[in-house]
């Protein structure tokens, strides 16, 4: 057999068992104004984290920055092995349409983007060998309109939309599958990533119970499942929609712009554990997000030039960098792909970090409107530490303003906790060896009672 025959036979076999082959991990990437070198740095950083690609969230596709940002990303990704696919944010494009923009045709507004980039070498190909396309929401677009849009692209896609806004989705009703099932190659659930606003039940933190009915039906229908993994969600972003003459049309606190707090400091590590427990039933993981500043769940870079001037927040990167979550994500990705447990990089003692909000539950801070759901917050130091197999006798010690609030044993794999008793001041996580010596520390900075709901992160060094 000639080599080319071997390769094509292998490709055919891979195609047949394609569902079992897909084990990619992506991050949701908000497409905005970005400098070329920053777009490139995003890809370099994402490769270092171990991500396979970005799901490129595009709201209003007629925005002037879209073309340049996509060119920077696709040009740089080509040849690196890092992949990209478009996530049509038809919710946002519909909102932009309502605010006077000319993107009023749902997925059809993205046709020039697809004609330019769908066959790009950097496009992520699904198990059917065709470029992946995703969405953020159905945008209220009806099934027959989605079908017509697929016809317009001659069905040349691997379609994994996020349609969790449609009737019956999370119940995974037979009605849902008969209405939508034929349109999709896989499904992706967004809201399942966090407990709902004001849900204070600790059992819902990081739970897969919203995902499971959909995972089971997707599997029974030979469709793939993309599971969402997120750190947390706190957003304070009030949108001020303007028309093309920059006149203020509305101040909208209901859509993207809102001020809310979803509970679950431990959402990230608990969901990591749960996802690893059912990894064999999953195809794709999408980390939400790489760079969504206003929603606070970014793990990557939030560049100042990307800050949406119509949203009332300033670039959070400087005060609240989130890179300290990245080593946990890297360890998760390796375990997910290998079907094993989380471990630090070979030779490392541990990876880990600590995160906390810098405002106390009983703080009375003038001028600040507490976010919806704030009462489910706790004054905690949340931490996660990953230890290699073979480590023994180690402990995690949490200190708040000079007082030890927790000391617990930590074992090989992923450990986490969220002890309460935080006081304003300096916070510290220490990893102790079996003799009680400090081997690694996460600390830095001090704060007073009226800080922010945004989480402050410190990495174990
Ligand atoms: C933090 O510790 C210092 C020193 O012990 C103490 O004076 C201060 O009251 C503590 N702060 C709080 C908020 O308890």
TrEMBL record:
Under CDD domains, the record lists:
GH71
Is this entry keyworded Signal?
yes
Signal sequence region:
1-22
Gene Ontology terms for molecular function? glucan endo-1,3-alpha-glucosidase activity
Q: Which UniProt keywords apply?
A: Signal
Q: Name one Pfam family in it.
A: Glyco_hydro_71
Q: Please report the name of this protein according to its UniProt entry.
A: Glycoside hydrolase family 71 protein
Q: From which source organism is this entry?
A: Letharia lupina
């Amino acid at each position: 057999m000639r080599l080319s025959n071997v390769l094509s036979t292998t490709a055919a076999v891979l195609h047949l068992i394609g569902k079992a082959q897909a084990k990619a991990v992506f991050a949701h990437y908000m497409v905005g104004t970005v400098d070329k070198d920053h777009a490139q740095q995003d890809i370099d950083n994402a490769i270092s984290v171990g991500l396979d690609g970005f799901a490129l969230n595009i709201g209003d596709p007629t925005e002037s920055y879209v073309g340049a940002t996509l060119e920077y990303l696709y040009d740089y990704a080509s040849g690196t092995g890092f992949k990209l696919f478009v996530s049509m944010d038809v919710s946002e494009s519909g909102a932009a349409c309502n605010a006077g923009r000319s993107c009023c045709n749902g997925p059809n507004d993205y046709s020039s983007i697809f004609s330019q980039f769908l066959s790009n070498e950097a496009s992520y190909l699904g198990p059917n060998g065709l470029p992946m396309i995703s969405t953020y929401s159905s945008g209220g677009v009806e099934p027959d309109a989605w079908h017509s849009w697929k016809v317009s692209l001659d069905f040349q896609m691997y379609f994994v939309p996020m349609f969790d806004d449609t009737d019956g989705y999370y119940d995974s009703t037979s009605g849902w599958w008969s209405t939508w099932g034929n349109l999709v190659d896989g499904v992706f659930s967004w809201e399942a990533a966090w407990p709902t606003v004001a849900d204070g039940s600790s059992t819902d933190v990081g739970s897969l119970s919203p995902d499971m009915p959909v995972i089971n039906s997707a599997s029974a229908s030979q469709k793939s499942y993309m599971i969402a993994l997120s750190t947390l969600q706190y957003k304070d972003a009030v949108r001020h929609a303007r028309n093309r003459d920059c006149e203020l049309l509305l101040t909208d606190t209901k859509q993207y712009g809102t001020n809310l707090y979803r509970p679950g400091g431990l959402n990230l590590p608990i969901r990591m554990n749960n996802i690893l427990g059912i990894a064999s039933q999953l195809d794709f993981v999408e980390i939400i997000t790489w760079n969504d500043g206003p929603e606070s769940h970014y793990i990557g870079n939030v560049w100042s030039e990307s800050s949406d001037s119509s949203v009332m927040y300033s670039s959070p990167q400087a005060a609240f960098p989130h890179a300290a979550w990245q080593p946990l994500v890297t360890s998760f990705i390796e375990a997910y792909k290998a079907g094993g447990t989380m471990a630090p990089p070979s030779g490392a003692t541990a990876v880990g970090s600590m995160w906390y909000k810098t405002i106390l539950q009983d703080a009375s801070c003038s001028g600040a409107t507490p976010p919806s759901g704030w009462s489910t917050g706790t004054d905690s130091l949340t931490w996660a530490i990953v230890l290699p197999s073979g480590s023994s006798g180690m402990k995690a010690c949490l200190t708040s303003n000079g007082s030890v609030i927790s000391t617990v044993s930590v074992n090989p794999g992923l450990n986490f906790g969220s002890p309460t008793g935080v006081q304003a001041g300096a916070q510290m996580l220490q990893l102790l060896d079996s003799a009680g010596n400090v081997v690694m520390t996460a600390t830095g900075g001090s704060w007073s009672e009226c800080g922010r709901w945004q989480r402050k992160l410190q990495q174990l060094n």
